[in-house]
Fold this protein.
Amino acid sequence: MIEIDGRILAADEMETTLAHVTARARLRAGSGERVAARFRDTASSLAFILAARRTGATLLPVHPALPDDGARRLAARAGCHRVFLDDLDGESLDDAPPPVPGEGHLLQMSSGTTGEPKCIARPWSAVEREIESYVAAFTEPEGMTPVIACPITHSYGLICGLLVGLRRGRAPLVLDTGNPKYLLRRLRETERPLLYTSPAMLHTLARLMPEGERLHAAMTSGTLLPAPWFAAIRARVEHLFQQYGCSEAGCIAVNPDLRRADAIGYPLPHHRVQAGVSAGTPEEIVVASGSATIRTGDLGYRMPDGMLIFVSRRSDTINVSGLNVYPGEVEDVVMAMPGITDVVAFARADPFAGERVTLLFSAEAPVPPRALQDWCRRFLAGHQVPVEALQVAAIPRQANGKISRREAAERYRSGALEAMS
């Protein structure tokens, strides 16, 4: 059984629906055909995904907010042969490559936070292996009700929230992510809820809850919580979990008791993870899973007990006269300044130092750049202090709540961001 925004989908109804979708959409295993599906109705989207998984068809789930032309363009980039847009008839796509018969895959586009998004194909058998490993290693949620308030077209909500919940024998609750007050009400009505959502939504809920109220459990993923956000959320969540992963490998590690934001978890047993051995010598996190070796592009190290600690994206590191500056350290200091609401730090070319730290930030009221720099000098070394800080109305974020440093830097360089007076 699954509940979607108040609508209960019983097991027998779901079985009938999946059979109907499979037949109408002509989903087949082993054919090598790639299909994309964009349904604005969450129940229809979920039925199509589950039908493709059961059949073993290769599927690209498309975010419901993407317009028709955008969905067609994304499907074409992923090499899809047909695209389904709110119906089961499907449209053929011109210039698709010839099908390659074989095992069906789940197709997903990488987030593109550090470069051009690319299509990642994961066999459904690899997804099943991830689910089994996740359930076996991460036992704390036993008896909790998964509440998925994030897109089910993304692996975080689909695999770790919904499919893992079903594997545990729980009835997942899928909710619209746009209304935090509605989300709070449904959490209060749910027995032992485990919330899967974005860090930004968790922070919003922490601010909305009355004094003394706490969420039973929540999972965070996708980006590290800024220090002030982490403190606010940690105080309002009884069981706070964090998971870390990438598009190619799925979920890599889970922290069953989050006490520091950068402690991203213990690796799942089906992965072999390499990283640095101390905070002073972080190295790229490399994951061996099956026969594949995946370089994550993230810097980190392992604690003596095996906990994986995240330091920075390798490409995000700012080199100031040969000294490494990790943007997260700067962002945590700025977020602790009273009145600051959001921030992103990135590199700006400098003829003398090679690179310098630049900052975009939003705040409740105008903040003079000099005041912000003076605040930073209280806590940071000189090479870490931003040489320029631009106040904007809002930091650009992606649909999944992540900040793209690459996009923020490009918009800053192009003058596309309007400064607050």
Observations:
- The radius of gyration is 22 Å.
- The CA atoms of residues 179 and 201 lie 10 Å apart.
- The mean pLDDT is 90.
